Amino acid sequence: MFIEDIKNDFYNVLLGNRVLLLVHYDVDAICTCKILQSLFKSDNVSYTLVPVGGIAELKQAYEENNEEIKYVVLVNCGGTIDLVDILQPEEEVVFFVLDAHKPTDVCNVYSDGQVRLVYKDSEENIPNFDDIFKDEEEDEENEESESGREGLEAMVERRRERRAWEERRNTLMFNYTQFSYYGKPSACIALELAWRVSRCGWGGVWAASVAAAAQAALCCRAPAQVLLDAHHLHTHTPPEHDRTGGHVTLEKDVCLPLYRRWSLEAALCHAPALAPALRLHTRAGHARLRQLLADTGIPLQQARQAYRSMDVELRRSLLTALETAAPKHKLPSPTHTTFLLQRVHSPTLAAMDVVFAIMGLIEHETLPKAEGFQHALSALDTQSGENESRRLGSAAAMAALQAVARVVHATLSARLLHLAGPFSYFIVQEGTPEARIVRGPLWLGVAARWAAAAAGGTRAIVASAPIDDTTCLLLGVPPRYQHEPRNLFGAAFEQAATKCGASVSLDYVDTSVITLPLAQRAQFLDALTALLAIPLQQARQAYRSMDVELRRSLLTALETAAPKHKLPSPTHTTFLLQRVHSPTLAAMDVVFAIMGLIEHETLPKAEGFQHALSALDTQSGENESRRLGSAAAMAALQAVARVVHATLSARLLHLAGPFSYFIVQEGTPEARIVRGPLWLGVAARWAAAAAGGTRAIVASAPIDDTTCLLLGVPPRYQHEPRNLFGAAFEQAATKCGASVSLDYVDTSVITLPLAQRAQFLDALTALLA
């Protein structure tokens, strides 16, 4: 269940009780822990802190520390699993879950109060209780209580309803769980709590700032969401400095991790956001880097020495110089808005630098994980002066970034980024020095995103590294991860493991990360490739006759394969009508069915209108009007496709100055269908997209032997659909004296005599030139 009041329903409940605090090994969780520790210290709340790395460690930590514990707080762990089922707690034990990993397990959502979720993310589309839970005992009692023919018929009907309900439930649950993603950072929620209890200091703001920077640096959240998180933090800044004289500011900074501790050249070579675009794995890469430095006006000698030893004027102008030079070298933006900690008598500290330092401590090559966790907490301290934990973490992060760069450069230069149908994959070779560093999900994830960006950034990537002599880690990065980081690999990995029988461990909290035996890796990758590919035989038969598993994986498979073929996103968020005993109905399907009825080839328009009203009925079962409209729409779409293909293949998309135009030929079968504004508009937009999508399009089709329809589609209509053609058509008609009818409600659609069409198009061309 979700709590209503974070102060009264969560924090005040903990006061005066001993708490078990279970914290996941990730940057956001450690920042959240830092804030909670400060609150607990202020209010004398006794607690036991145990860091956990996965579900098995979570279970072990609970079993070893649950004596005389009534309240358990889980940070970034436990939200995506059925806690009561896995931990088997006593009835009086209450779990408070603060987890940024999504989607939340529905058993936790609909818990009777033993599991209490501290925050509800607005992005979660949680299914309704009645759609996914059913009382089986009541159904069995009803079956036992009825006898005779009527009872038998009722039992058969109930079983049919049960099957339909189960099918609908499976669809809902698949849609809900098919993507893993991240919600608002847990540290931001903890800061909100600190604000509510009047304990919000700069230390808490700094910890939450580092958590927000982590989700941006690791591409856990879309850029727009990152900005909203930053704005939320900005509203919770204390009015005065803390006792150490430190305060947090939101400023523009160079997007180079740890550049204040490195040389500028080394920072550019090892920046996950910029280095892939420099293509340093090629011979020309280092020449491109030197040219970039020359364009910024920074001498090579200065760029190769420690940043703090650089000329002061060069350091001051670095941000502006990089922003100016980046477009010439086709680099992504070299700057970003981030949080900086300003301290008395100490250098400025960037939140992103602390993110990488904490990553270096969590996945340190030699430090035990528990010791690295304690160092990570210390790295968040805001006191002035050198921080030993932060220094240790920064050194480890710099070594890890160098290892990541070597792994990716070796992979790309040796062409070891293998193409496996809908995704690409690479393997960190066993026995190499880099394999000892890049063997955890954080640094292997950095390497995977680096390789994806260097390869164009549009394909899904699977990366694997050895953990020991017998086991390997494997993770997936979605296509276009910078813009849409929802990850499809969690569900795909689970299905592939079931399909091939591999001994896959799904122990990680992030479902897109798994472990499996080294000997079974090739077999698993083959199964994953087969899962995300669709056989031609299946693709050519009716969708409802396709294999059930292929239908379930269709959305994931299309999203994975689309970038390879440079397709726009093949999925969208839409409305679905779920009905008893009937297939799911998509709103877009009804849209096209109604279009088919309104502009039907043979039906009178008034009759088509009545059918269109009937097509909106929501009753279960087949709808005759919807069936009629769907058939007409399918025929119309086929006609539109033939019109556009014929136009483009015969080069009949004519260039007329500022726009292009095409004409549906009189006397063709298609002309009888594509003669109304709806289907002609579809054809015009189709032709515009096929021609690049940047030019305005005018399309015309004959209505009868003497009159034609003519309409205009604006340039870049997908992004800016405001139409310029209404006023232009009226002016062109006045200019040439054509007998144009402006009868349509949409002013970008007109009719005119066939004999005057050429004259009108000439006038329109002259007007817009």
Automatic annotation (TrEMBL):
GO cellular component: DNA replication preinitiation complex
GO molecular-function terms, A-Z: chromatin binding; DNA replication origin binding; single-stranded DNA binding
Localization terms from the record: Nucleus
GO BP term, example: DNA replication initiation
InterPro entries found in the cross-reference section: CDC45 (IPR003874)
Source domain of life: Eukaryota
Keyword annotations: Cell cycle, DNA replication, Nucleus
Annotated stretches, region: Disordered: 135-154
Biased composition (Acidic residues): 135-145
Protein name: Cell division control protein 45
Species this protein is from: Heliothis virescens
